[in-house]
Design goal:
The structure holds two protein chains of two kinds.
Chain A lengths: L5 E8 L9 E8 L4 E5 L6 H8 L7 E6 L2 E2 L5 H6 E4 L11 H11 L4 H14 L15 H12 L6 E5 L7 H16 L3 E5 L3 H7 L2 E6 L2 E7 H7 L5 H9 L7
Parallel strand pairs in A: 3-8, 3-9, 6-7, 7-8
Antiparallel strand pairs in A: 1-2, 1-4, 4-5, 9-10
Helix pairs in contact in A: 3-4, 5-6
Chain B lengths: L1 H14 L2 H30 L3 E7 L4 H12 L3 E6 L5 H10 L4 E5 L3 H19 L18 E4 L5 H32 L5 H9 L20 H15 L2 H13 L1 H8 L4 H30 L14 H25 L3 H18 L13 H5 L3 H13 L9 H24 L4
Helix pairs in contact in B: 1-11, 2-8, 2-11, 3-6, 5-6, 8-11, 8-15, 9-12, 9-13, 11-12, 12-13, 12-15, 12-16, 15-16
Chain lengths: 249, 425
């Protein structure tokens, strides 16, 4: 039997110094091979949930399983299962893309040969070959985003967490990134994606969850949700379910 | 593999940080050259250059001439004569105009006073032997034969040594005259010059031995003092680069990614320590090499390496590790790069003052002596001084090395605890 990519079981969490719980017995299952989109207004808990799933945030109750492995063990084996592409540029700007990939590849446990192979492939599919030996601080925003993504997948993870992976990039770079993500998913990588770019999400995600004030208020296939709520797009669905007013004020 | 990848990453980042490299290599090199040159000049001034002494001799007797000759022979002064009819005000002005810091006016009565005083002393001496001597009385307490003028910039210790030298010369003139008088009174003929010289010049000599741990004579010069001292300062100044590198990594997104990868952050800290330990060793090699090969070409004494090279390597390694531990501690505790840079730089300056790098430890007040022991730079300097200045070996500086290791371990534990507390490892 195939394990779900992520299984969140009765998770409760509150930030230190804040008595109110952001998540209270939260449950969520993300199937393996899905292109899962997690959406919600600012402050809803998307990034926090992403941090819990990747083990960045600790001190929570309940359990989170990645491909059947509880992350509570803090086993290094679990870290090999997933890749993380944070919203911030999680790389060394003083290094070139090749040097960044070599360093993070080594930290991900790859051998020298594997790093060389993966680096060559990634630079090619992301159209980064020309920028391969320029330091990252000399690259455009779009190029940096691609390097940021390439580092997240250097070790060919089974689950890829993406936090606003295309923010601030031009149309061409965005297309490159989305096409690459779709290609990865076809090869079996589960994508767990969060963004405010709802039009982009419609083309990428096949499973949608909406989160508001720490609660999952909708979780289904995109077409089912649209049909159920009589909407023709994700933006309308989003506004219908989360309301027209700002929620984080 | 992971550690080596981290070291490669840290070296690459370091090599591309031109400002950091300038701070770690350029600044100390400049400092050691400038400070050594200045101190070398001071050494030369004190050891080789004679102090200019302006003399206004108003006396026409023989004793003033003898006195001036004796002062000249003392070896400490370069005598510059001023007009004998100069007013006191003009004489004071002349001291500054002729680049002298000292001047003496020999009054008109100088020879008469010496003669009278020696006559009185001779008379008293003869009387005490039961012989008949001149009993004319001169008030010996109120004799003030010379007036010494000095620049306010002259230090008290220097002034005292000048007074001592002048008093010594006066003593020679007076003693010679007393001897001559006594000889004449007893033998009724002048004292022969040979006997005079035998009696006055046959002084006991004072042997000078610099403090040294070995039998060779230790070399004390500006280079031997400054090169090790500023090498230590340079080593600890890696706090600017290493401290801010740790803070930058903590604050950047890369740190978040590192935490999601199957490698312990301890590897990153270890990599930084090894990289910067190599930097501190390279700093020492560069600065020592400058001392050995460049200094003689720019008119400075060449650095002479200690006889115990293994001891030198061990001390350099220990100082480097202590400096790196301090930088790691600053980097872990600082919240921002500004904090790391500001606190790092200021604290190193304070610790180096306390450690005796900038100000000699022996002139510090007693209350500072305990605080001084808390400065790792103090122990580094003690260890290097033991090797470079006192000619000691490893066993002579073992206590300093152990103290440094103790401080480094405390700093490492503090950094490790803070990393755990901040959930960074």
């Amino acid at each position: 039997m195939q394990h779900p990519a992520v299984n969140i079981i009765n998770v409760s969490f509150s930030y230190a110094g804040q008595p109110a719980k952001l998540f209270n017995n939260l449950n969520l299952t993300i199937g393996a091979g899905e292109r899962f989109g997690l959406f919600g207004p600012n402050g809803a808990g998307k990034t926090t949930l992403m941090s819990l799933m990747t083990g960045l945030q600790q001190q929570w109750q309940g359990d989170i399983m990645l491909l059947g492995n509880t992350i509570k063990t803090k086993s290094k084996h679990i870290n090999k299962l997933f890749g993380y592409v944070p919203q911030d540029f999680a790389l060394y700007e003083e290094l070139t893309p090749v040097e960044n990939l070599a360093f993070f590849g080594a930290w991900a446990g790859l051998s020298k040969t594997e790093i060389k192979e993966r680096t060559g492939t990634l630079l090619e599919v992301m159209h980064l070959s020309e920028a391969a030996n320029k330091t990252v601080n000399k690259l455009s925003g779009g190029m940096k985003r691609k390097v940021n993504l390439a580092i997240g997948v250097i070790h060919d993870p089974q689950i890829l967490f993406l936090d606003e992976p295309t923010v601030g990039v031009d149309v061409q770079a965005r297309r490159d990134i989305i096409n690459y993500l779709l290609m990865l998913n076809k090869k079996g990588t589960t994508l767990i994606y969060t963004s405010h770019q709802l039009s982009e999400a419609e083309g990428l995600c096949n499973q949608i969850a909406l989160i508001d004030a720490g609660k999952i208020i909708a979780n289904d296939k995109l077409e089912n949700l649209l049909a159920h709520h009589k909407q023709d797009g994700l933006e309308g669905l989003f506004l219908t379910l989360t309301g027209n007013t700002y929620s984080n004020q | 593999m992971k550690l080596w990848a981290s070291i490669q990453k840290d070296i690459r980042i370091l090599l591309r940080d031109k400002v950091g490299l300038l701070l770690m290599f350029g600044m100390p090199v400049l400092l050691v050259i400038i400070v050594t040159s200045i101190q070398n000049n001071t050494f030369d001034l004190l050891n080789k250059t004679k102090v200019t002494l302006l003399v206004c001799n108003r006396d026409t007797g023989a004793f003033s001439g003898q006195f001036i000759k004796a002062v000249g022979n003392a070896g400490m002064f370069k005598i510059v004569n001023s007009a004998n009819n100069e007013t006191e005000e003009n004489f004071k002005e002349d001291i500054g105009n002729k680049n002298a810091v000292l001047g003496i006016i020999i009054p008109e009565i100088f020879s008469r006073q010496i003669a009278a005083k020696s006559k009185t002393v001779t008379g008293k001496a003869l009387n005490s032997f039961g012989l008949e001597g001149d009993t004319s009385k001169v008030n010996l307490d109120n004799l003030n034969s010379l007036t010494l003028y000095y620049s306010p910039a002259v230090q008290q210790s220097f002034k005292l040594s000048v007074q001592g030298a002048l008093s010594g010369c006066l003593q020679i003139i007076e003693s010679r005259q007393v001897l001559k008088n006594m000889y004449f009174a007893i033998n009724e003929k002048p004292m022969p010059d040979s006997l005079q010289n035998q009696m006055l010049n046959n002084k006991l000599t004072i042997a000078e031995v610099p403090l040294s741990k070995n039998k060779d004579t230790a070399v004390l010069n500006a280079t031997q003092q400054n090169v090790p001292a500023w090498t230590i300062f340079a080593m600890f100044f890696v706090v600017m680069s290493l401290g801010s590198s740790i803070v930058r990594e903590k604050l950047s997104g890369s740190f978040i990614r590192l935490k999601t990868l199957p490698t312990h952050y301890f590897v990153a800290i270890l990599s930084k320590q090894l990289t910067y330990l190599a930097v501190t060793l390279l700093q020492a090699v560069v600065i020592f090499a400058l001392g050995i090969w460049l200094f003689p070409h720019i008119g400075l004494p060449a650095l002479s390496l200690p006889r115990d090279i293994i001891g030198l390597v061990l001390v350099t390694l220990t100082c480097g590790w202590c400096a790196v531990s301090y930088a790691v501690c600053v980097g872990v505790f600082a919240q921002t790069q500004e904090q790391a840079n500001g606190f790092g730089a200021v604290s190193i300056v304070i610790l180096s003052i306390l450690g005796g790098i900038m100000v000699p430890a022996f002139i510090m007040p007693g209350s500072f002596r305990t605080i001084m022991n808390l400065s790792p730079l103090h122990w580094c300097l003690q260890a290097f001084s033991g090797l470079f200045l006192e000619g000691g070996g490893l066993k002579d500086i073992l206590i300093n090395i152990l103290s440094l290791l103790g401080i480094a371990i405390i700093l490492q534990l503090a950094a490790f605890t803070a990393l755990r507390r901040k959930k960074l490892i």
